[in-house]
Amino acid sequence: MSLELNINAAIKAAMLAKSEAELRALRAIKAALLLAKTAEGGGGELTEADETKLLQKLAKQRKDSLEIFRQQNREDLAVKEEEELVVIEKYLPKQMDEAELRAAISEIIATTGASSPADMGKVMGAATKQLAGKADGKAISALVKELLAK
User: Fold this and answer.
1) Where does this protein have coiled-coil stretches (predicted)?
2) What is this structure's pTM?
3) How far apart are CA 132 and CA 2, in angstroms?
4) By the 8 A CB rule, do 137 and 115 touch?
């Protein structure tokens, strides 16, 4: 079932449950999907990979805002961002834990033949393609740096 159909059903359920936070997040997802579909050169259809990228972007926006609000002691706004982030993450693929990520990156380093920090670009290119949607870009980058520095 497509993400859009899932979102529409979830919006109905959230309305019936009177779950304001969930409704807010679901409407944000639906709006982002509509914008992406109708964007210039969008073609009107989104692939599963496009949908995942879109959800990752929304999650990243919430995380960044959450961090800023916490720094500024705006807990009222931080709570809203956190609530929305939880809902958005339900629709993202399961994220890899550090052990799984370390193993996957070690394998990528071995297959690309990288041996020094100078090869980081080569490894990052392969890692971001292979691990798209499964791990955060910052986490991938940090682990690649660490493993290449050894």
Assistant:
1) none
2) 0.73
3) 19
4) no
| 104-142 pLDDT tens trace | 888 888 888 877 788 788 888 888 888 877 787 788 888
Residue that the structure tokens 């709006």 belong to: 31
Q: Which amino acid is at 100?
A: E
- Per the structure block, which two tokens stand in for 88? 């958005």
Supply 142's token pair. 């940090």
Q: Name the token pair of 24.
A: 């807010």
Separation between Cα atoms, residue 63 and residue 71, nearest integer Å: 12
User: Are 144 and 122 a contacting pair, CB within 8 Å?
Assistant: no
Through-space distance between the first and last CA atoms of the chain, rounded to whole angstroms: 44
Q: For residue 87, what are its two tokens?
A: 């809902």
* CB atoms closer than 10 angstroms to residue 18: 8
Judged on CB neighbours under 10 Å (0-12, 13-18, 19+), 108 is buried
Q: How many helices (H) and strands (E) does the chain have?
A: 7, 0
How far is the C-alpha of 82 from the C-alpha of 104, rounded, in Å?
29
Query: From the CB of residue 121, how many other CB atoms can be counted at a distance below 10 Å?
Result: 10
